[in-house]
Amino acid sequence: MFGSSGQVFVYNKTKETFLAFRVNIADSVAGRLIGLLGRRSLKPDSGVWIVPANAIHTIGMMFSFDVVMIDKNFRVVSVKELVKPFRVILPKLRAESVIELPAHTIFRSRTEVGDELVIDRYEARNIPKPVSAANADQVVSGSRQGIQV
Q1: Residue 31: which H helix or E strand, with range?
Q2: 29 alpha-carbon distance from chain centroid
Q3: Of 19, 36, 129, 135, which cross-links 10 as Cys (Cβ 3.0–4.6 Å)?
Q4: What is the CATH number of the domain that holds 99?
Q5: Is 39 helix (H, G, I), strand (E, B) or coil?
Q6: How far apart are the first and last CA of the chain?
Q7: Mean pLDDT, rounded, for 107-120
Q8: Residue range(s) defining the domain that contains residue 44
Q9: pLDDT digits (tens, 9 = 90+) for 60-106
Q10: 24 within a domain of the structure (yes/no)
């Protein structure tokens, strides 16, 4: 969907709260297999979006984290808080992907089954440069030409 690189943000449209701002996309075979393995923790406002996936395991993990499973329309179909290491989350038939988030994210964002999420990339936008005083005078005087009072 978004390609194998980059980051997205996850926003709970139903509750009008952000879940995370820097979520890595794991949509390759290697990315899905590795997920959070080898990490000691998740930074606040980060996570991993595993696409496609409808189940996960935490074998080899070193920390607890929250799990949100979503369907193809980005509706939450399952939430699991504080999933501990060496656990298996069984498949949810309606789930199309899984978002692994720092512990307590589900509680803080008030996310629950049925909520609609927005997952999107940040877009770089050009910020208009301020008009200098010299240019502003030229623009104003130029716009006054042809106006008779």
Answers
A1: helix 29-34
A2: 20
A3: 19
A4: 2.60.120.1140
A5: coil
A6: 60
A7: 97
A8: 7-144
A9: 888 999 999 999 999 999 999 999 999 999 999 999 999 999 999 99
A10: yes
Asked, for residue 2, whether it belongs to a domain, the answer is: no
Q: At residue 44, does pLDDT exceed 50?
A: yes
Number of domains making up the chain: 1
- Reading the block at residue 97, the tokens are 């992907």
* DSSP-assigned beta bridge partners for residue 52: none
Task: Say if residue 143's pLDDT is above 60.
Answer: no
**64-91 per-residue burial string, b: 16 or more CB within 10 A, e: under 16:** bbbbbbbbeebbbbbbbbebeeeeebee
3-state secondary structure of 110: coil
- 104 in Cβ contact with 68 (< 8 Å): no
Residues 95 and 103: their CA atoms lie apart, in Å, by 21
DSSP tally for the chain: helices H, then strands E: 3, 9
Most confident range (mean pLDDT) of 3-12, 57-66, 103-112 is 103-112
In the structure, what pLDDT confidence band is assigned to residue 149 with cuts at 50, 70 and 90? very low
- Tell whether 134 is covered by a domain: yes
What three-state secondary structure class fits 109?
helix
In a domain, 149, yes or no: no
